[in-house]
Task: structure prediction
Amino acid sequence: MDIKVTVVNIIKSLFASKNFVSGLNDNDQVLGSNRVSGKINTTNNTNIELECDGAYIARQGELITNPTSYFHALAQEAGEQLKIGAGAVRGIAISNCEDGAIITLSDGLSGITAPLFQFTSGKKFEIPTYIPLENLPFNEGLRLTITANDAGVTVIYE
Result:
């Protein structure tokens, strides 16, 4: 017995005593965005419609994956494509950053499109600093850009 017939039978049994859905039969579909029409009762010509909408969102692969990291040595970067496709940024570690360096993580495949995170250094520092980004999601792809001055960066993502 398939699920459509099962759902129709459940609806019939729920409303059988009230004559709500007397027009349902096993061929009626109630899943997806299909509509089912039936008479409210036998003495009235008013129709009642039941609409069921459903959506299933699935992520390909395991729900928890091992993080991947990318280390960019002390230099400027016109744009490094770290990943193509959807994912999440776990965090970023910044070290050996020059004064005025602009570090940008963006959601895209070229240029600085849809910035997710941008850091502008206000002073030169050499001590590594970790910034947690709490699984910041991206859809198109993850791209790293470093402009204005040099910086060393490690990006942790999945």
